[in-house]
Amino acid sequence: MAEAKKAEKEVKEEAVQVTEDKTEAKTAKAGKRSSKAQAEVAEKEAKEAKKTEEVDKDVVKKIKQKPRVKKYTKNQKAARELIETDRLYTLKDAVELLGEVSKTKFDASAEIHVTLNIDPRQADQIVRTSTSLPAGTGKTLKVAVIADEKQAEEAKKAGADMVDADAIIKDIGKEKIAFDVLIATPDKMGELGKLAKVLGPKGLMPSPKNGTVTADTAKATEEFKKGKVEIKNDANGVVHVAFGKVSFKAEDLYSNAKAVVKALSSSKPTGVKGVFIRNIFVSASMSPSIKVDQVEALKEAKK
Predict the structure, then answer these.
(1) Position 27 confidence tier, pLDDT thresholds 50, 70, 90
(2) How many CA atoms lie within 13 A of 143 on its CB side?
(3) Would the pLDDT of 66 be above 50?
(4) Are 112 and 241 spatial neighbours (Cβ–Cβ below 8 Å)?
C-alpha cells in the first residue's frame, strides 16, 4: 500500500515537472518573438525620430528666413499718402483723385473693381452684361465679325477690322487671336461652338448677353468701336472694368464710372439674394486703390 502511494506520488511529480518544462519552453519561444518584435518597434521608432528631426530642421530653417516686407518706391509712397485709408470716398471724389495717385510715365487706364455677393460656381449667379461708355474707352479695339457676305460688308462699313469668316475661323482653330472683340450672327454660332475651348478661356466667345451675338452686326460693331465694354465676373466673383484713361477729363471719367455701376446694379442675377454689391474700389494702372462708398455710388449712378 505504501509502495502504491509512493509510485502515485512519483507519477504526479513527473507530470508537474513535464507541465513546468512545457511552460518554460513556451515562455522561451514567446520571449524570442517578443525580442524580435521589440527590435522591429525600436527600429521603426528610430526611423520616425529621424524623420521628425529632419522636419524640425526644415522648420527651423524656414523660421530663420527673413519675412518678406513689401518695399514701396518713392512714387508709390507718395501716392499712398494721398489716400485716406479709413475713409469711404464718393465715386466722384475717387475718380478725381486718380490723376494724383497715378505716377506712371504712360497714360494709365482708369479701373473699377467691384466685389459681388455671388457664387461664381452657380449658373444662376453668373454676371455678364455690357454698357456703352459715354466718353469712350480711350482704346482702339480690333473687331472681328463672322457673318454672311451682306452683313459682313455692312459691319466693315461700320468699322469692323476683320470680316472674312473662313479666315477668322481658321486662325482661331490655330489659336491665332488677332482681335479684341468677336461678333457673330446667330446662324454662325454652330461653327463657333467647336472653338469654344479656345475662345472661352480668353473671354472672347460671343454671347447674346453682351451683344456680340446679333443679326445687326453693323450696329454692334459701331457700339464697340465707340466705347462699349463687357462686364463680367471672374472666378472669385469680382468684376474688373477699365473705364477710360487717366488723361481723360474728370467729368468724362466720372460719367463712364457711373455707367458701369448703373449697368452692374441692374444686372443682379435671379439666384442672388440680399446685398448684390459688397464693395467698390477705383484705381489706375499700378496705383494704390481707393475704396468707394458703394451705397453712395449706387445713388450717384442713378442721377
Answers:
(1) very low
(2) 27
(3) yes
(4) yes
Helix axes 91-101, 250-265, angle to 10 degrees: 130
Q: What is the fold, at CATH topology level, of the domain defined by 85-138+227-303? A: Ribulose 1,5 Bisphosphate Carboxylase/Oxygenase (3.30.190)
- Distance of alpha carbon 256 from alpha carbon 66, whole angstroms: 45
Of residues 132, 110, 98, the one with CA closest to residue 228: 132
The letter for the amino acid at 7 is A
Neighbours of 302 (CB within 10 A): 9
Question: Which residue is it, cell 467647336?
Answer: 194
Q: What is the pLDDT of residues 198-234, one digit of tens each?
A: 998 888 999 888 889 999 999 999 988 888 898 999 9
List pLDDT tens digits, range 154-170.
Answer: 999 999 999 999 999 99
pLDDT at residue 72, rounded to an integer: 78
**Domain positions in the chain:** 85-138+227-303, 139-226
Tell me how far apart the alpha carbons of residues 240 and 232 are, in angstroms, rounded to a whole number: 8
Q: Which fold has domain 139-226?
A: Rossmann fold (3.40.50)
What residue type is 158 in one-letter code? Answer: A
